[in-house]
């Protein structure tokens, strides 16, 4: 089997979405503005990727009101599982090169 063949993933094959998921994997949840700042994305670009991830069931998006209204993004169990599986495939592919 070709070492890179397992890397096709409709959602996580995109480097921005993979970056978002890896960031959330390490934290569990993060504010929209935090993700935007860390990954250096425009609000529209981040919003588009988050909608794709939410539609796939990999994240949840909530509006919370603390000192001010915020958008909080939280990784789901499915998101955790699929991200770890994709990372394992990446590791295997790199080892196979």
Quickly list its features.
4 helices, single chain, 3-stranded antiparallel beta sheet
Describe the structure.
It is built from four helices and three strands, in the order αβααββα. The protein has 97 residues and is α+β, with helices and mostly antiparallel strands. It has one domain: Arc Repressor Mutant, subunit A (Orthogonal Bundle), CATH 1.10.10.10. A hairpin with a 3-residue loop joins β2 (59-65) and β3 (69-75). This is Winged helix DNA-binding domain-containing protein. InterPro entries: ArsR-like_HTH, WH-like_DNA-bd_sf, WH_DNA-bd_dom, WH_DNA-bd_sf.
**End-to-end CA span:** 12 Å
Structural class: alpha+beta
The fold-level CATH name is Arc Repressor Mutant, subunit A
Which consecutive residue ranges, at least 5 long each, have pLDDT under 50? Answer: none
Spatial sequence of strands, sheet with the most strands: 1-3-2
Number of domains: 1
Rg measurement, Å:
14 Å
Q: How many H/I helical runs?
A: 4
Secondary-structure arrangement, i.e. CATH architecture: Orthogonal Bundle
Mean pLDDT: 91
Portion of residues within helices: 40-55%
Report the CATH C-level class. Mainly Alpha
The fraction of residues in strands falls at 15-25%
Give the name of the CATH superfamily. Winged helix-like DNA-binding domain superfamily/Winged helix DNA-binding domain
Tell me the series of helices and strands, N- to C-terminal: HEHHEEH
Q: How would a textbook summarize the main sheet? A: 3 strands, antiparallel
In total, the number of strands is: 3
């Amino acid at each position: 089997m070709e070492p890179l063949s397992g890397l096709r993933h409709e959602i996580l094959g995109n480097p921005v979405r993979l970056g978002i998921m890896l960031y959330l994997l390490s934290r569990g949840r993060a504010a929209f503005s935090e993700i935007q700042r860390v990954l250096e994305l425009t609000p529209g670009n981040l919003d588009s990727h988050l909608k794709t991830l939410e539609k796939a069931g990999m994240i949840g998006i909530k509006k919370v009101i603390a000192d001010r209204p915020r958008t909080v993004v939280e990784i789901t169990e499915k998101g955790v599982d699929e991200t770890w599986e994709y990372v394992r495939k990446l590791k295997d592919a790199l080892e196979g090169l």
